[in-house]
What we know:
The protein is an alpha/beta fold. The protein contains three helices and four strands. The longest helix has 15 residues, at 84-98.
Amino acid sequence: MKAVILAGGVGTRLWPASRTKKPKQFQKLTGNKTMLQETLKRVSFLKKTDIYIATNKEFVSEIKKELPNFPKKNIIVEPALRDTATCIGYAAMILSLKNPDDVWRLFMQTI
């Protein structure tokens, strides 16, 4: 099984805590970990190589900073910032090409 964490949104609904450069997936809302870190922890029953993060190019460096041990090849970078459905479709296409026989799940915790 594969999991995809959606972490490319700009978090406008969480304004003013969420800003363009620091959207909700990078916010510490309920403890000392960001929403992204908490979401990764929730899918930790999977191998790290079976977890993917879908994001846009603006957030790749922040993801690498927050998750230094996360496999870089498992970061799916959207070619353009579109909406959630486009991100899900793009991630599904990438995963189906990489792992045609696997089952995968979308964890939409950090949209």
